[in-house]
Amino acid sequence: MAPPSDGDGKQGVDGGELDMKVVILAGGLGTRIAEESDLKPKPMIEIGSMPILWHIMKIYAAHGLTEFIVCLGYKGYIIKEFFANYVLHRSDVTLDLAKNEIVYHSSEAEPWKVTLVETGLHSMTGGRIKRVRPYLHPDESFCMTYGDGLCDVDIGKLIAFHNEKNREATLTVVRPSGRFGSTRIEGDDVTRFTEKPAGEGDFINGGFFVLRPEVLDRIEGDDTVWEKAPMESLAQDRQLAAFRHDGFWQPMDTLREKRLLENLWASGDAPWKVW
Question: Model-level pTM?
Answer without folding.
Answer: 0.85
